[in-house]
Amino acid sequence: MKEWFAVYTKLNCERKVSNILTKKGITNLLPLVQNDVQKRKNGGTPVFPSLVFVNLEKENIGKILQIPEVINFVYWLGKPASIKEVEIEVIQRFILEHKNVSIQKIEVNREEGVRIITSLDEKTIQKSLPKLETVKITLPSLGFALIGERQKTYVKIILDQSIAV
User: Fold this and answer.
1) Which terminus of the chain has a lower count of CB atoms within 10 Å, N or C?
2) pTM of the model
3) Cα separation, 46 vs 21, whole angstroms
4) pLDDT value of residue 108
5) Right CATH number for 3-83 from 3.40.50.2000, 1.10.10.60, 3.30.70.940, 3.50.50.60?
């Protein structure tokens, strides 16, 4: 059964590794953040520096390590860390729907589900709202949170709740 894994690459080699994986027929994801200048130049900046996500069966891990620009897999408890499918889907959707996307390191709790957190509280909701809303989504399998901005009309306010997707 195929699983998602995160692969460490040499500095600034994410695109090269992604292209090699694609040529080898290996499903991979290189999330890129784009602004207008970057779209014209190189397609964007990697959201996760030095990481490419790969979807493969565990017995094929050795093939990835043969690529010279690959350093290693991200490990958890002595073995390559499996990334939940839902987190890969959330990453893809988040970077398409949000502006000024960045990442933040968080404490790892692999049993926790994906959580959506907004920057508003009940008092702020009653006041006039900003045009852009900051949204934070935690990705427990990776130990990161994605932070981005989105038009407030598209943000569903969730207070004091965690969402397991």
Assistant:
1) N
2) 0.76
3) 16
4) 63
5) 3.30.70.940
